[in-house]
Amino acid sequence: MSISVFSPSVALRNLPNVGNTCYLSSTLVSLFLGTDSFDGLLTTSPRAPSNLRKALVHVVTVVRDGKTPSPPDLRALVSALHPAWRHNGRQHDAAEFLSHLLDALRAPFIPMMRTFSHAGAPDANDSALCTERILWLQIATNNAHATVSSMLQDYFSAQSIQGLQRGGKSVDATEVRVLIPEYAAMRETGETTAAERYLFHVINIPVAISRFDVRGNKLRTSVHISVQIDARKYLRNFAADNQWFMTLCAVICHRGASISSGHYVAYTRAGAREWRRWNDMRGGAVERCESSSDGLPTRGEWRDELRKDAYLLFYDLGDGSLPGRERHRMLQFLADRKLAEQVQLQEDQHGAFRQQLLDATGVYVSGDFGDSNHERRAMGASGGGSSLTDMFDGDFVR
């Protein structure tokens, strides 16, 4: 199962709204139109529901090709989410839907090392691996102008823990988390993921800003969004001497006063020079806007919405010390090796078939069995070529 190659240069169109589906549209756009980091979830996640993957592949391919999915296409996708997703047909929390979708597609986990410091007796559990799929960031009540960078720093820095059980006693402790720059194919509970079978060449970190209180009311605290964040302080010893950065790919904004109402729109970055705004109530071509010197949109309205209504952000984690051409060379090497294996397998199968014919009939059949396109198909050249995701069909593990 393959999808169209992600290309920021294609002119794109909004998805249709088929009845309170803005949370779904915005999530799909952020996962598959802001980055190609999650493509492996659609192509090599065999234990995910096949009808869901097929519906997603179709919709994503249509949008990536610059076309508009039909309402029946979206309804088929909504139907494929049943029965696990019980909220179809009404507005709901995009973060909850994202969590459900990543779980259904068996997305890999973001691993972190948790370390507890306390005055009690040392315990084997004082250092342990934990995993998440979404990092939840809290807005400090006394911070009128928070930043994503400072909120991430708070997330990973020392946190006070009361009532930690150690040696049969309750102790106060300090918790520190350190990000590990590799996907985890297995959770600490033993749950496995698609990373068992697919090379996720970029780690994407979904970040959720806690914009709703316990009653579901919206907090419109201004949060400054950084397009690029130095991630070495979150990786600490795991960073070594490398230049790790988190680069913003997409943002989901919530327009409205509560979690159960309002409207979701998505922003994606098309390289370093352009932003796109997706709105499934608008229809037609996706709105476009140039980037300013700080990487954010030049339009004041867009900047204001990102600052006050950003809810979910998607960051690619990458090592900036590796030149881009080296990364692409590595991926191309793996793709070429995979393609060579596929061609060799076909040749072996055809050779065995020829031998069977020779043994059975005494007639040797040469060539391509009357199919002039056989060799072209083996090399991925027919039908417009083969995408990189066709080649990565699950045999590589990062």
Structural class of the helices, strands and pairings? Answer: alpha+beta
Helix content: 25-40%
Taken together, the total number of domains comes to: 2
Characterize the biggest β-sheet: 8 strands, mixed
CATH topology of the largest domain: Cathepsin B, Chain A
- Mean pLDDT metric: 79
Q: N-to-C terminal Cα separation, in Å?
A: 20 Å
Strand content: 15-25%
Within CATH, the superfamily of the largest domain carries the name Cysteine proteinases
Count of discrete alpha- or pi-helical segments spanning 4 or more residues: 11
Radius of gyration: 24 Å
Which shape, going by the Cα principal axes? globular
CATH hierarchy, class of the largest domain: Alpha Beta
CATH architecture of the largest domain: Alpha-Beta Complex
Q: How would you spell out the order of helices and strands?
A: HHHHHEEEEHEEEEEHEEEEHEHHH
Strands, count:
14
Poorly predicted spans: 364-398
In short:
This protein is an alpha+beta fold and 398 residues long.
